[in-house]
Design a protein that fits this description.
The protein has 185 residues and is mostly helical. It has a single domain, classed as LemA-like domain (de novo design (two linked rop proteins), Up-down Bundle), CATH 1.20.1440. Helix 1 packs antiparallel against helix 5 and helix 2 packs antiparallel against helix 3. The radius of gyration is 23 Å and the shape is rod-shaped. The N and C termini lie far apart (80 Å). 24% of the residues are buried.
Length: 185
């Protein structure tokens, strides 16, 4: 009788271990998937920027310093490894700052603000920024869920056994940068 009880307890323990491990794997995959979504929106943003700069360049060619800052920030952001969450956050912050300078520059050119191509690019950027903001929030929510699961008892035992480590949040150093780029004219 004691043997059956012991086997039953061992069996339940193994089932719990498997279920907990699978939960951590599912959460890890959710994090990876949500990070992939951020990467897609960043790529769209990076692809849009040269078109935006070229449109502005036609109206404000003598403002090359501002335009170069935007392109330089974009190029730096493109070199950050996709898995480097902190690097991506810093690059995003630099690019957002440079983009604000570009839109401030555009304020000085009424013809530019009325240009159809510029208005379409502006709308596309607003949509991308909104999607990117949502993707960042979702990523951070999945990271929070995973980090909580691997740090709570008894899950911490399984996490330590199988090497699950806490994941990094997508955080900006300057919280003002968390706001979407305002492109309203």
């Amino acid at each position: 009788m004691a043997l059956w009880i012991t086997l039953g307890v061992v069996f339940l323990l193994i089932l719990w271990l498997i279920a907990t491990y699978n939960t951590f794997v599912k959460l890890k995959i959710k994090i990876d998937n949500s990070w992939s979504d951020i990467s897609v929106f960043l790529k769209k943003r990076f692809d849009l920027i040269p078109n935006l700069v070229n449109t502005v360049k036609g109206y404000a060619a003598h403002e090359s310093q501002t335009l170069e800052k935007v392109i330089q920030a974009r190029n730096v952001a493109l070199t950050v490894p996709a898995a480097d969450v902190a690097g991506q956050a810093a690059a995003s912050q630099s690019l957002t700052t440079a983009m604000r300078g570009l839109f401030a520059l555009a304020e000085s050119y009424p013809d530019l603000k009325a240009n159809t191509n510029f208005l379409e690019l502006q709308t596309a950027l607003q949509n991308i920024e909104s999607d990117l903001s949502n993707a960042r929030r979702y990523y951070n929510a999945t990271v929070r869920e995973f980090n909580t699961a691997i740090q709570q008892f008894p899950g911490v035992i399984v996490a330590n056994m199988f090497g699950f480590k806490a994941r990094e949040f997508f955080e900006l150093e300057n919280q003002d940068e968390a706001r979407n780029v305002e492109v309203k004219f």
